[in-house]
Amino acid sequence: MPGVFIAWCAQAGWGASLQPSSAPAAGKASSAGRAERRLRRALLRLARLAARALAVALGAAVLAALAAAAARTWARNWDWLSESTLFTSAAQVRLRGTGEALRFSPAADARASQ
Q1: What are the pLDDT digits (tens) for 51-103?
Q2: How far apart, in Å, are the Cα atoms of 93 and each of 49, 99, 102?
Q3: Are 6 and 19 in contact (CB under 8 A)?
Q4: CA-CA distance, 19 to 16, in Å (whole number)?
């Protein structure tokens, strides 16, 4: 992932300042050169840390979505016990929000048959 960030920075025109220098310094390096190298290293560490954090966040989001889908599937399994429970569930889902879902509840059916 840090390589992607570095490639993006290179496209933006800052690539030369983020790439670690491979050429050895001739003689004693100046304090400005050392400060620049430290800054480069700090930026690379920050890019790696940000990439790891993004990967962890995306992984957690995918796991949460899978857990929610699994929970919904588990809850929906009880609707498939018989044709009656399947129809009742479908009617409640279809009429949810209209206030008419209560007419199709098993309690309402029991009251109507008495």
Answers
A1: 999 999 999 999 999 999 999 899 888 888 888 888 888 888 777 666 555 55
A2: 45, 11, 11
A3: yes
A4: 6
Residue by residue, what is the 3-state secondary structure of the chain? CHHHHHHHHHHHCCHHHHCCCCCCCCCCCCHHHHHHHHHHHHHHHHHHHHHHHHHHHHHHHHHHHHHHHHHHHHHHHHHHCCHHHHHHHHHHHHHCCCCCHHHHCHHHHHHHHC
Q: What is the pTM of this model?
A: 0.46
Question: Whole-angstrom Cα distance, residue 65 to residue 73?
Answer: 12
